[in-house]
Every structure is written in structure tokens, then in C-alpha cells.
Design a protein that fits this description.
Largest sheet: 5 strands, antiparallel
Radius of gyration: 15 Å
Number of helices: 5
Strand order of the largest sheet: 2-1-5-4-3
Distance between the termini: 21 Å
Order of helices and strands: HEEHHHEEEH
Strand content: 15-25%
Helix content: 40-55%
């Protein structure tokens, strides 16, 4: 399934749970689930028919992961903005959604781990359910 050369330290159980909660929340619109850290990533779910294997998806997904890793550097800015205490705060960071012509990229960060979901066009409210469940799983790892 996943080439050992590219493995992060995510457990098989957590990877399975992440794919399961994403699939439950987003259904058939879910295209992929990628677990990533500041230095590595794993493709833990691919919808059938998109790529021949997770390894075949890695070049495309690596570009996506590199873009989304900027979120780890944003933590001090997000924390400061969320804790201003002047009534102007927009609250703590929850997740990021990037809108594209034919779908979405969703990034969820928790400490030094993150998950990227790609999905076809759909109702954006389902993303909150997925993000909440993913943050819970990442917090408990």
C-alpha cells in the first residue's frame, strides 16, 4: 500500500481512522487523504480510478503538500490573531479550504501533523464535520 521509504510515523490504525472519518463526512466526493508533517507525508487514501497506486500519486501530491506546509509556519500569526483580547479576534484556527473550479483542498493542522483532503465540488458544510473529527484523531495520537 504505502512505500516504506516515504512513511511518516503515523500508525496504521490512525491512518485507517483518518480515511474512515473523511470518507464518512465527505462520501463519494472524497478524492484523497494525505497525512503530512513538516518533513514527510503519506498518501493514505485514494479514490479508485484516480491513480494506479499511492506511489503514482506522490509527485502530484508532493506539490500540494509543499504548498500546505506553510500552515506550520503560520501558527504564531494565527495564535496571536486569535488571542488578541480586543474584541477584534476572529477566533482560533480550525481548518483551511481552498476552492478550485472542480473541487476543494481542505487542510487540517494539529500541532506538528496535518491532513489534506481533496474532494469534488460539494456542499462546504460537510468539511467542518470532517475537520472536527480529524483534529480529534490527531490530538489523540
Amino acid at each position: 500500500m504505502i512505500n516504506e521509504t516515504y512513511r511518516t510515523d503515523i500508525s496504521t490504525d490512525t491512518a485507517t481512522e483518518l480515511a474512515s472519518v473523511a470518507r464518512t463526512s465527505l462520501g463519494d466526493t472524497l478524492r484523497s487523504v494525505i497525512y503530512f508533517t513538516p518533513s514527510s507525508f503519506d498518501v493514505i487514501y485514494l479514490r479508485q480510478g484516480l491513480y494506479d497506486s499511492p506511489d503514482a500519486a506522490r509527485p502530484d501530491k508532493q506539490q500540494l503538500v509543499e504548498l500546505e506546509r506553510v500552515g506550520f509556519a503560520e501558527v504564531p500569526i494565527r495564535t496571536t490573531t486569535a488571542e488578541r483580547g480586543d474584541g477584534l479576534s476572529i477566533g482560533p484556527y480550525e481548518f483551511t479550504i481552498r476552492f478550485h473550479d472542480d473541487g476543494f483542498v481542505i487542510r487540517v493542522l494539529q500541532d506538528d501533523a496535518g491532513v489534506i483532503l481533496t474532494a469534488d465540488s460539494m456542499d462546504v458544510n460537510a468539511f467542518e464535520d470532517a475537520a472536527i473529527a480529524i483534529r480529534r484523531l490527531l490530538s489523540s495520537e
